[in-house]
Amino acid sequence: MSESKFQRQVIKEYEAKGYYVIKLVRTNKNGIMDLLALKPKEEPIFIEVKGEKTVQTPLQKYRESELKKFGFSRVLLLRES
Question: Model-level pTM?
Answer without folding.
Answer: 0.91
